[in-house]
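Run tRNA threonylcarbamoyladenosine biosynthesis protein TsaE through structure prediction, thanks.
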Amino acid sequence: MGSVIIRYWVRDMEIWLKDAGATRKLGEELAGILNPGDILILNGELGAGKTTLTQGLAQGLGVTTPVTSPTFTLIQEYRGRYPLYHIDLYRLEDPEAMLDLGLEEYFGGEGITVVEWGGRLDPYLPPAFLEIKLEYAPEGRRAIIKARGPAYERVLEELKKIVGPGG
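Sure, done. The structure for tRNA threonylcarbamoyladenosine biosynthesis protein TsaE is below.
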């Protein structure tokens, strides 16, 4: 029998985001909770708010340069309180080609790594990370946040204290 990888979603939460400002604010709040080496996987349809959330994260980290989607450059690095590595896999279809880019070097490093369209890397993702799926909702967006691993359960607990019950 080949090797078996089991992934457990231990905790999750939903947050309703009424507009782009609320999405950006979620990113800012995460900046106060995440630590160097943390990985944030963002999934959702085009225009769902992945880059907007990353802009809020960057602002919360003290990044002063404009943050845009690295769709064509694939990886953009920003300097703030911690380095922010912003990766966008939208244009890449083949997970093996993604590995050829050396993306795993950004996982667990000295900065915070954000991967838009990170689901495309599955099953090559590290065993622990925070996933945020952004979905369109009638009154804005819904963020479904899942913690994979104890460090990210801590992030969820801290986030719950900030946003309160019911998101």
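Strands lie at 11-17, 39-44, 75-78, 84-88, 112-116, 129-137, 140-148.
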